[in-house]
Amino acid sequence: MQAFSGVPKNTASADKQTIIDGEKMTGAQALIRALEDLGVQDVFGLPGGAILPVFHAINDDTKFRFTLVRHEQAAGHAAEGYAVATGRVGVCIVTSGPGATNMITPIADANMDSVPLVVITGQVGVNAIGTDAFQEADIVGATYPVVKHSYLVTRAQDIPRVLAEAHYIARSGRPGPVVVDLTKTAQTGEMYYSWPQRMILPGYNPTTKAHGRVISDAAKLFAQSYRPVLYVGGGAVRSNASAEVAELAEVTGAPIVTTLPARGIVPNSNPKALGMLGMHGTVAATAAAQRCDLLVAIGARFDDRVTGKLDAFAPGARVIHIDIDPAEIGKNRAPDVPIVGDVSTVLNDLIPEIKRSQAIGGKPNLKPWWDELNRLREEYAIDYDQPCDKPTDGSLAPQWVIKQLSDHADPSTIWVSDVGQHQMWSAQLIDFEKPHSWISSGGLGTMGFGLPAAIGASVGSQRDFKGRKPVWLIAGDGSFQMTSEELTTAFLDHAPVKIAIINNSVYGMVRQWQTLFFGQHYSQTNLADGDSKEGGEFFDVPDFVKLAEAYGCVGLRAFTEDEAIDAINKANEINDRPVLIDFRVWKDAMVWPMVAAGASNNEVAYRPGTQPLLHKGVDDGDQA
Questions:
Q1: What EC number(s) does this enzyme carry (predicted)?
Q2: Closest CA to 489 of 464, 452, 453
């Protein structure tokens, strides 16, 4: 049933509305005032007919900065990048119908990655709802499966309260996107504005502090464990628990393995950090999870890209699962100790309990465990020096390019990636030394995420860090073309993002799967945007350098290693406009290590034909 079906066709008359002391204004003006009173400083979006009263209320005196994008989907991804970079709630405003439906992808993306967003969409007037009016769409119903909460606002007087609730819901508990669908009736109606608003949220009371004996139960499991591992996910990042995770590893001696969204939660230089685990994780990190006797899931959700074949994941481990969302506890793996609460709060309670336990009973001897993990870490390190990694056509190795980007970057750089092979290489090879330095689309894997998210991160860097944190975007030529129109936004909004296009002229990750699992049948994955020639010349559609220049940006291209280094250095020196570098790389490069979809993590391939965890002495039976 559509969310619209129960909406009354007539609003209450003004004299029957609840009137309180306050300043008289329209609902549209109240929306702008509420955003200002909530402390919102940056908003992303695009105008349209059903939201025009709100845009009419934005003027030179408005306290927040509005970033005009060129496509509504980009507004959502830019708000995501802004939210992850700053820790604030990302806010976007778009119109009804196609404007709202274009927001469904970023809403779903934010929902999967627990990013706090408030998405304000225009809607036709109350009397037109259900009539198939021009640009009418049931956005509340359409987003129901992929949103944390949603509102359909039909009265002007409700707008301040709804905005206060939406902002609180988006950022509290497990963060996520909240939709506020604003009818034109509510925007043009008159109301009496006051602040602060009393929120009406019966039943919504997120648990932040662990209850009962679970903390002491968890400490007991640590005392009994000789092969523990901390499996850290994006929830720890959202909780700002970097220091707590590092301290827990130091106190217990446990290694740290991370999911894709949690890259950078502890520095790569931390000796306890084994890197990312799962489908394209390090052999050592994947082995740690498979061989452990205690798996401590911290703000992680046992995603299939991490676990591989679920019933073969960490088969001998007891499980402590810490998450603020009770729905995640036991969803994919039944825990021995379930702990519902905010990660940083829980760890601050757990660490002293573990110290008390150690003071009485001492620490387990983890040397044999670390000897094995260090051997795997040394023998099967992430590199690109194997024969199968060497380009055969004279082009650049994409892994080498990404490593050079990292080596030449400012230590405070915020790294943004799009989705594809370049995303996995970035997660593997970038030197992450600071938290909140990595922004990528994890759960939904949204191609086209990168450029708008980088713009949002750049706006956030300017807002909170006076631009001292440069933003580098690493994108594929395929993913970049999905939102390349946002180069206009970057240029006009003075967002000096630096863009590295890892241009292999194919949909790289799809091609990798076609190579490995579909008989090298490369159906519809050749983009022909740089690898074909006419008359001996490269035939580029598009020519990324000309495209960048057409948008007012600096465009560079690199075929050789010397050209690549020169382009990177030049890009790092330019801070007054966006810079795009078209790196020509080998189309047959593959991301290793790899676990095939649906396979056990024990089958991780370091390179073709090399599966270290199946070797004698390292398999399940020998470890047991």
A1: 2.2.1.6
A2: 452
